[in-house]
Amino acid sequence: MTQDVKEIFANRRGTGASGGSAVAPSARATPPAPPAPAALAAKVRTLAPSMTRSMQRVAEAVAGDPAGCAALTVTGLAELTGTSEATVVRTARLLGYPGYRDLRLALAGLAAQQESGRAPAITTDIAVDDPIADVVAKLAYDEQQTLADTAAGLDTVQLGAAVAALAGARRTDVYGIGASGLVAQDLTQKLLRIGLIAHAPSDPHLAVTNAVQLRAGDVAIAITHSGSTGDVIEPLRVAFERGATTIAVTGRPDGPVTQYADHVLTTSTARESELRPAAMSSRTSQLLVVDCLFVGIAQRTYESAAPALSASYEALAHRHRSGSR
């Protein structure tokens, strides 16, 4: 029996030492249900940056040609991508499937969906000389795809745990810089309007001094698309060490920020370009997660949230009436 085959069986049992380190930390606990076929491409885009180059080749192959790969055995896919059978199995597991057989079934389902549907008529690449109408269409499609990718890849178990922590928190701090800082402000305003105590310090030094005051029963949220923003990681680390429940909203589930996060909510990896170095889709995916958190919290705290939200509307109503000054 070759070493590669031993690794395949070890991975299927979940007890092998070789290959176990390639599985995401969240997969070592109770594994979530395999993603639906439609979520496969989104999963590949999200996890590809954290994969080894050989695993990336496997992931790109299955996402690029689901029908062709669905017809291949594990050996055939390994030969096609120039990798090993063990690498194929590890890639399948990292994508959320118990084994290669489950990945093949998902590929077959995805291929059937693609065959019955229409391919998008536009791409997300915007040229310097594109007419404004094309720009609007391309941006709209990109935003739509980003939201779909984020929704497909969002771990609802992690989301539920984050909602529960926030709903019962004594206080919540939200950290974000630049565009992510705007998202942090948005979440804070939403929480304040339903009667919860929340802060989103824009100054990195103030964020750290605020984090020092946190303790068990409090929540700290770090919002960083790259997962490596130092001014966001530092206050989250302090909050983590003080015993607060910590949450990371990031496009990089393998980023440094996640080592200090009790719960990780992954956003879609935005496709940026020369004309869009800070792609709007990064922020769009973060805002979707924020809205999911807010609605979940409002559901859990409805008896107090509804009157608080009504009172906030009433307090501002006169500012929106016609003719008011």
UniProtKB/TrEMBL annotation:
Gene3D superfamilies: Glucose-6-phosphate isomerase like protein, domain 1, Winged helix-like DNA-binding domain superfamily/Winged helix DNA-binding domain. Signal peptide: none annotated. Residues 10-36 are annotated as: Disordered. The keyword Protein transport does not apply. Residues 162-303 form the SIS domain. Keywords: DNA-binding, Transcription, Transcription regulation. The keyword DNA-binding applies. Pfam families: HTH_6 (PF01418), SIS (PF01380). Residues 11-30 have a biased composition (Low complexity). Residues 38-114 form the HTH rpiR-type domain. PANTHER family: GLUCOKINASE, HTH-TYPE TRANSCRIPTIONAL REGULATOR HEXR-RELATED. This is MurR/RpiR family transcriptional regulator. It comes from Streptomyces incanus.
